[in-house]
Amino acid sequence: MDWDDLRIFLAVARAESLSGAGRRLGMDASTIGRRIARLESSVGAALFAKTPQGYALTAEGARLVAPAEAAEQGANAAAEAVGREAGLTGQLRIGAPDGCANYLLPQVARGLCAAHPGLEIQIVALPRVVNLTKREADMAVAVSPPDTGRLTVQRLTDYRLHLAAHDDYLRDAPPIRDLADLRHHRMIGYIPDMIFDRELDYLSETGVQSAAITSNSVSVQMQAIRAGAGVGIVHDFAIPFAPGVRRVLPGRVALTRSFWLIRHADDRASRRLSLLGDLLAHGLRAEVARLESQVAGPSLRRP
């Protein structure tokens, strides 16, 4: 059985669609469909059933997943052995919440690519937890450790968040001397029913019950704050990217959260992915420290 056909089979199984598999593999959906049809003909069984939700594995397809994944691990090991002397090469897809993806990973990726010119880094910014079981990414940064799945978890670094607003907003708005004063201000935060992790429920720690401007994206929230639309909680590491935005009540509202590096348990034997994970962890720690050092004032830990 051809490994390239198995590679396409796994991509469809994980994406549950031809178009999703095509995006991951850099192939058009019609080609993916022809290759799946060819594989089904060679094994003499239908591997997928087309449903309104996409392509679902049949019983025969489900039985093929484990052997296909074993072939994938063997192919990856062979690629590592061949490329070991040439340094780190190939594609690395990193999933991350959009705050990390927008404000940290571009600089970390720049450093990794500069040190390893044969490396191709893809950054997937998602307002939800990245599904490594479906291989949406090779590794993921998360804001809390998962409690299910065959995954390995590594604590990366703590990061800090504070209330913040733009000078233009603060100049014309009522003064903010205490948390009670926030009731006189336009608040910015997450859409409540789209908070995918309890660690992102920042405003509840200020006593604020609702916000006037909300988004499922922390980057959109920061842009609203930068536009002078109101007050919200932002990452300290994002403030250097927003001239005119400064912290508000830093001695009263100071949150600490953590980033975690998540990998599929089957990848522990991969020397390449382990090394890339170590380099990613080091880069993220250094970048958080560098950016947070540019934000003046005390940094208090969450009680």
Automatic annotation (TrEMBL):
It holds the Pfam family LysR_substrate. One of its GO terms (biological process) is DNA-templated transcription. GO terms for molecular function: DNA-binding transcription factor activity; sequence-specific DNA binding. The keyword Transcription applies. InterPro entries: LysR-type_TF_proteobact-type, LysR_HTH_N, LysR_subst-bd, WH-like_DNA-bd_sf, WH_DNA-bd_sf. Residues 1-58 form the HTH lysR-type domain. The keyword NAD does not apply. Keywords: DNA-binding, Transcription, Transcription regulation. Belongs to the LysR transcriptional regulatory family. This is LysR family transcriptional regulator. It comes from Paracoccus sediminis.
